[in-house]
Design brief:
single chain; 242 residues; 3-stranded antiparallel sheet; 10% strand
Length: 242
């Protein structure tokens, strides 16, 4: 009984923390509207998933989402805050930190990248996603790659061949779109990255993103992921000023 009470208390506290996080997100820096910033609290926070943990089933399973968001992403947030606190670095602009990442510690690089990349990744999936893009995104893909299926094949090849842990990206730079990948939690904003540009599409190919459902079959995970790609968000990122 006592155990049950303390569990209830814990859940209540968690719910309140989530609400507090939501309030901070509303008042914080809304540059990316990703919920990753909290200037009001001077602390980075785990953004809430924009859908329930089981919403991407059967393509991305609920348990993977729960652990990936609640444990892995939370750890990047916690460790990023800790590393920035220890180095006495201001937490108001993650993008600026990433752009000059060569000047920071490995902990800030890994956890700052981890926080940024995952904050994007959740929003780039949707239970109503999948299919093909329209409008400006479709135009850019068709003029750069010829057609959507060629684009998809090239993206798959890059995502499949990234050795070990990393990310596959579609980025835009000087009005040109490009496919590429980065190791670990690096991303195309970082000065240390070979691939540079503003991310439009991001795919996590770390094993933690798919191992529970797909085990070692990264190709099957990637195939499934196309069914939940949020093209509306890709379009929003492409058309956004910054
Ligand atoms: Mn991940």
């Amino acid at each position: 009984m006592k155990k049950e009470n303390s569990r209830r208390e814990f859940l209540k506290k968690s719910a309140m923390a989530t609400l507090a996080g939501a309030a901070l997100r509303l008042t914080g820096n809304a540059t990316l509207a990703n919920g990753m910033y909290s200037t009001a609290g001077d602390v980075f926070i785990l953004p809430a998933l924009p859908y329930p943990v089981d919403a991407l089933e059967p393509h991305i399973d609920a348990q993977t989402m729960q652990i990936h968001h609640g444990k892995h992403h939370q750890a990047y947030v916690t460790n990023l805050n800790r590393a920035l606190n220890e180095a006495n670095i201001d937490k108001t602009d993650l993008e600026r930190i990433l752009e000059g990442i060569s000047k920071y510690s490995v902990a800030i690089r890994n956890n700052g990248g981890g926080h940024y990349n995952h904050s994007l990744f959740w929003k780039l999936m949707s239970p109503t996603g999948g299919g093909e893009p329209t409008g400006a995104v479709a135009d850019a893909i068709n003029s750069t790659f010829g057609n959507f299926s060629t684009f998809r094949e090239k993206f798959n090849a890059v995502a499949t061949s990234r050795f070990g842990s990393g990310w596959a990206w579609l980025v835009i730079r000087d009005n040109k779109i490009e496919i590429g990948s980065t190791p670990n939690q690096d991303n195309p904003l970082m000065d240390v990255s070979d691939l540079k540009g503003k991310p439009l599409l991001a795919l996590d190919v770390w094993e933690h993103a798919y191992y529970l459902k797909y085990q070692n079959k990264r190709v099957e995970y990637i195939q499934a992921w196309w069914n939940v790609v949020n093209w509306e968000e890709v379009s929003r990122l492409m058309l956004a000023k910054k």
